[in-house]
Structures are given as structure tokens and as C-alpha cells.
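Take a protein:
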Amino acid sequence: MPYILAWLLGVPAFVLILIWLFVH
């Protein structure tokens, strides 16, 4: 089930990008 793994990895990455945008 690579789709579920991609979703689980994509959500934290999206959150980190949002945090990076707010910091900068």
C-alpha cells in the first residue's frame, strides 16, 4: 500500500513546510 505510506510521509512534510513559511 504505497499510497498510504506516501500520505503518511506527505502530511508531516506539509506541516514542516507550513512551519518553515511562518518562521520565514
